[in-house]
Specification:
2 domains; six-stranded antiparallel β-barrel; three-stranded antiparallel beta sheet; 11 strands; about 25% helix; about 45% strand
Length: about 200
């Protein structure tokens, strides 16, 4: 009798378990264990994220600087790229090669460069005995140069002539040359300062 009660209880428990299992997975269905269901849910959420969100790229800036001496400097080498897309993060480094062509000005040759000048004709001032009569202003035409020196034709208010100019800066310099005054036709040295754009 005692064994019969135990068999009855064991059978009842087995039936209850079978009924509960059948309720979770009805006939014609495929049952998935909870751990597999969690993996499938994660994969589907990840796929949905990939389809609805574009990747985000982060690229460190690269600066290329050229100085007045033609030297080239770069910063940000090697450059670093980082891509973030949902749960994926990809990072990489790359090499930067900078090549630049810089025009080198000619050190000798012909050119057309007009310059304004303010000069002084000392012999003119001495002969007229007036300092103001030595002042001359006009236009220099720089037509031949070698490095920082140049050959100029001068046409001023009081004289015309030819001389040599020196570049003190890119747009400013000095000039010394021969001049002949208009009307009196006197020969003079001409010392001037010039300015060009």
């Amino acid at each position: 009798m005692r064994y019969g009660i135990m068999v009855f209880i064991a059978g009842a428990l087995l039936m209850a378990v079978r009924f509960a299992y059948g309720a979770e997975c009805p006939a014609g269905s495929t049952c998935v264990p909870p751990q597999d269901l969690a993996i499938m849910t994660t994969v589907l959420k990840e796929k949905q994220c990939l389809q609805t969100h574009p990747p985000v790229f982060q690229l460190e800036p690269i600066s290329i600087v050229t100085d007045k001496d033609g030297r080239i400097f770069t910063s940000g080498t090697p450059y670093h790229l980082k891509m973030t897309w949902c749960n994926y993060i990809i990072e990489g480094d790359g090499k930067v090669t900078a090549q630049a062509a810089i025009p080198v000005p000619e050190t000798f040759g012909f050119r057309f460069r007009p310059k304004a000048y303010l000069g002084y004709l000392p012999l003119e001032a001495i002969k007229d005995e007036k300092a103001a009569t030595g002042i001359d202003a006009g236009l220099l035409l720089d037509f031949l140069h070698w490095k920082w020196s140049n050959l100029n034709a001068a046409v001023g208010i009081r004289s015309g002539g030819l001389g040599i100019g020196v570049d003190l800066t890119r747009n400013f310099g000095a000039y010394v040359g021969y001049a002949i005054t208009w009307g009196t036709w006197r020969h003079n040295p001409n010392a001037a300062l010039w300015f060009a754009f």
